[in-house]
Amino acid sequence: MILNIARKELKSLFASPMGWTILALLMALLGNFYLTGVNKYFEVMSGAVRPAERVGVTIFVGQTVFGIARYIMLFAVPLLTMRLISEERRNQTLPFLFSAPISLTEIVLGKFVGLIIFLSILIIYIFMMLITLNIWSDIDFGYLLANSFGLWLLLGSFSALGIYFSSLTKQPIIAAILSFISLFALIFLESMFASDPNHWFAYISLMKHFQSFSRGMIDTSDLIYFFLFISTFLTLTIRRLDAERLRG
Amino acid sequence: MSNLTLEAIELTRLFGGREAVKNVSFHLEKGEVLGFLGPNGAGKSTTMRMLTGNLAPSIGTVKICGIDIIENPKEAKALIGYLPEMRPLYKELTVDEFLTIAARLHKVPSKQITKAVEIAKQKCGLSHMSKRLIENLSNGYQQRVAIAQAIIHNPLVVILDEPTVGLDPIQIREIRYLIREIGQKHSVILSTHILPEVEMVCDRVQIIDKGNLVFHGSIDELKQHRQGNKLMVGFSKAPAISALKDIEGVIKVEKTEDQMYRIHFKDKQSPSEAIVNLSVKNRWGLYQIAPDQTSLEDVFVQLTEKKQKN
After folding, report:
1. Nearest to A126 by CA among A205, A82, A45, A72
2. Chain A residues with CB-CB distance to B149 below 8 A
3. Which residue has the higher pLDDT, A48 or B250?
4. How far away is chain A from the Cα of B93, in angstroms, using its nearest Cα?
5. Is A248 on the interface with B (CB under 8 A)?
6. Higher pLDDT pick, B303 / B10
7. How close, in Å, is residue A107 to chain B by CA atoms?
8. Which one of A211, B133, B134, B170 is most buried, by most CB atoms within 10 A?
9. How many domains does chain A contain in total?
10. In the predicted model, is pLDDT for residue B304 greater than 70?
11. What's the rounded mean pLDDT across residues A115-142?
């Protein structure tokens, strides 16, 4: 049932030009950064860098692409999540889902999974783009995999939060703005507490937990953080929809 | 199990302390079409939302074929088809795509989905619209898609909230025919504020007003309520009111604004024949005589007043 809802979401995404356009634009943008990364690599590395300070092409280009990808997705994910529930509410299509023999959990998870599948397409594209480096060099697949996995978890967290804000309102735009602001805050919490990196407030920053992935390391404590983040917001969404049924 | 397909037991729904639906109980049997009447804001849609599990009742239970919708929502919901007041359509999809999704979500086995979609389209007269985007369909056709969505999984109970809104007269007739057809095999609850519609398609009627169930009975009972013991008579040379009053069985005579007479009479003592005879004899110039049909509003007023007295 979760997959059926996910299929419905994907169908809606690709039924209009929106899904295709977003994928195309994001890829064009990231492809551009990939190219710049490769060019810069030659510029920097051919110059005065001492051998000890040289980094591999994977890390250099990977950092450029993955570094920028998370900021671009900070804008893109709220635009994708905003419609998930609030648009259904505005178009009065929620009763269609609520009166079908599916539980609220399945509805919310289905919508989440649908969006994740969509975002996975993007991540797979990014990964494929980066492994083309392997044609003329020897790249570090582990580093790319860890980064992609980290980005995947990060986007999952963005989506979970976005879905929650989408469930709060009838206006997709408000949902987008709310989720953008909160994601922005969560990402930059860390820089706000730069003087005291061990403050607990800095600890809830999303970026702090992305860092180990961006170094090519999969840390279980970060995995748990993302897992908790996602499940918290999905649970809140389910609760929110349930409250609607109870309160009317 | 008996033939009961739906039971609503003492449903009450509060919205911020205000009772939108008060202590409403009713049941539905297999092969029955139940008309649910009421003026705007009477609580029709609220009741229907509770019946379909879209809204939790504050007090009371809903049972579909004996399955409690709050305790076992999935099993109960699988037996219901629901057309909400606002049609729930994904307008960016085509008719086929949307109905396929509807069938899938209602757990139609995957091998039968294509067939189920075909049958639903055929029943609602949508076969030639398969590949069209719902967005581009006319109002009436969108309504048909919404109805098709409600019957696609062959549910035991079909709940339709104002199904004929926005349709042209021919479409309305087709939809009424469709409702009758569904009603033969399954149970249908139909909400509307159009009385003739109820008289045409329903077996039983219930009227709700301000959250109270004020009338519950067969369609014939309602007709009786509606017609009452009244005649509307017009004369070109009107006699004195007292002359009319003297006729046997007449209780009261009123003169209406358009120079007609409304004659109230006792049960089963229609004075129409006597009026015609007297008119011929005395040259009153009778040009119209007809049973006086009370409007729906009057029936409401009558019924609500009765309820208050009780």
Report:
1. A72
2. 96
3. B250
4. 7
5. yes
6. B10
7. 10
8. B134
9. 1
10. no
11. 91
By CA distance, what is A94's nearest residue in B?
B88
The pLDDT value given to residue A127: 93
ipTM of the complex model? 0.85
**What's the pLDDT tens digit per position in A44-101?**
877 766 777 777 888 888 888 998 998 899 999 999 999 899 999 998 899 999 989 9
Structure token digits, residue B95: 């008719």
Give the A window 57-116 contacts with B, CB below 8 Å: 91-103
Q: Are B248 and B211 in contact (CB under 8 A)?
A: no
Q: Which residues of B11-25 are buried (b: 16+ CB within 10 A; e: fewer)?
A: bbbbeeeeebbbebe
Q: How many A×B Cβ pairs under 8 Å?
A: 83
User: Which tokens in the block code for residue B94?
Assistant: 């085509």
CA angle B158, B161, B162 (to 5 degrees): 125
Q: What pTM value is reported for the model?
A: 0.85
Q: Which residues pair with B204 in a beta bridge?
A: B34, B218
Q: What CA–CA distance (Å, rounded) separates A234 from A229?
A: 9
Question: Which residues have CB under 8 Å from B38's CB, separation 6+?
Answer: B44, B191, B193, B207, B208, B209
Domains of chain B and any CATH numbers: 1-79+155-227 (3.40.50.300), 87-154 (no CATH), 229-293 (3.30.70.100)
Q: Report the chain B residue with the minimal C-alpha distance to residue A95.
A: B54
State the smallest CA–CA distance between residue A182 and chain B in angstroms: 29
Q: Which residues of B touch A91 (CB under 8 A)?
A: 88-91
Q: Do A11 and B104 touch (CB under 8 A)?
A: no
Joined together, the tokens standing for residue A124 give 């797979």
Cα separations in angstroms, A189 against A197, A229, B138: 10, 15, 51
- Identify all chain A residues contacting B102, using CB atoms and an 8 Å cutoff: 96, 100
**Chain B residues close to A92, C-beta within 8 Å:** 84, 86-88
Residue of B11, B67, B15 whose CA lies nearest to B41: B15
Residue with tokens 């929620």: A94
Each residue's pLDDT tens digit, B207-230? 888 888 888 888 777 777 666 677
Measure the CA–CA gap between B113 and B154, rounded to whole angstroms: 12
Q: For residue B52, give the nearest of A5, A12, A99 by CB distance.
A: A99
Range of the domain at A119: 2-247
Those residues whose C-beta lies under 8 Å from the C-beta of residue A43, and which sit 6 or more positions away, are none
- Cα B106–Cα B190–Cα B302 angle in degrees, nearest 5: 155
Q: A138-168 pLDDT, tens per residue?
A: 888 889 999 999 999 999 999 999 999 999 9
